[in-house]
Amino acid sequence: RCGTVAIVGRPNVGKSTLLNRILGQKLAITSHKAQTTRHSILGVKTRAEGQILFVDTPGIHRRGESALNRYLNRTARAALADTDLILFVVEALRWTEEDEQALAAVARAGVECIAVVNKVDRVEDKEALLPFLQTLGERHAFRELFPVSAARGSQVEALEQAVLAAL
Ligand code: GDP
Ligand code: MG
Q1: Where is this region: G1 (predicted)?
Q2: Which of 17, 25, 109, 134 has CB 3.0 to 4.6 Å from 80, enough for a Cys bridge?
Q3: From the CB of 31, is ligand 1 less than 6 Å away?
Q4: Which CATH number belongs to the domain containing residue 26 in this structure?
């Protein structure tokens, strides 16, 4: 199996941290500041089962605020158009207008998509995740919903298996 996987989501949800975790190395720059990534960052993961090209897209931002935002949006959309699978990353228990915009771009791309609910290590009451997952599942026909912690690595291996299965 092989294919291209775009990692998409609003700034700060943990896209770069997830890519670094999957690759087992610090390739993408992670930061608490938004817009750290101006260009898409590519990473190849080679496994016995196949090879996956990951594309860490710059955040999809609100429309038209600046030339830079417009440029970032174009770059992100171009990456989406030519991909086999999208990992749509959100933060556990947090849904914002920017997530809405990013999901709209995913829907426009018309590509199969797995929702990654990141930063679950921060959620003390795990039961609170269930209604969040349910609501997210109603927003889009995701192939799967995956609660993970990119920072700690929990459920990331299972996510990789799901990605391979989808390619
Ligand atoms: P990006 O803008 O989507 O690429 O987000 P980054 O990967 O740069 O991460 C943004 C911030 O969230 C950084 O401070 C990360 O350390 C933090 N972060 C990322 N993943 C996790 C996680 O699983 N748990 C927690 N608690 N923090 C995380
Ligand atoms: Mg990033």
Answers
A1: 9-16
A2: 109
A3: yes
A4: 3.40.50.300
